[in-house]
Write a structure and sequence with these properties.
Mean pLDDT: 79
Number of strands: 0
Radius of gyration: 20 Å
Shape: flat
Largest sheet: none
Strand content: under 5%
Order of helices and strands: HHHHH
Helix content: over 70%
Oligomer: single chain
């Protein structure tokens, strides 16, 4: 029996065991919902400008999410369970994932908004 696959699976499972990634994603979703309420409760002259608040607020949250998560794990999880060094995906794999995400996004926009097609 080769213990490496089991060790690899255990290491990946360890990242989710404390629930912090789910809490971070849930808080981003909650924040998105609250930001989308702003145009409904804001005066009419600022309601249009409030739509700019969503990307201006979400992009930093998404980009800083990994750092926030690491800081929370350093403070809460690691003192109780220890630190595990994770295998990082190669650069080409991250780039491919980004390109696939952009492609899926463009395809979904074309499917859901027929008025944008010429």
């Amino acid at each position: 029996m080769n213990p490496i696959p089991d060790l690899s699976q255990r290491t990946r499972r360890y990242w989710m065991i404390d629930g912090l990634p789910e809490l971070l994603i849930g808080s981003i979703f909650l924040f998105t919902g609250l930001v989308q309420l702003v145009p409904l409760v804001a005066p009419a002259n600022i309601a249009g400008w409030a739509n700019l608040l969503l990307p201006l607020a979400l992009i930093p949250l998404i980009l800083l999410g990994r750092r926030i998560l690491h800081a929370l794990k350093m403070r809460i999880t690691y003192p109780h369970t220890g630190y595990v060094a994770y295998r990082q995906p190669p650069r080409w794999q991250r780039a491919l994932g980004g390109l696939v995400g952009i492609g899926v996004g463009i395809a979904l926009v074309n499917l859901t908004m027929p008025s944008l097609r010429r």
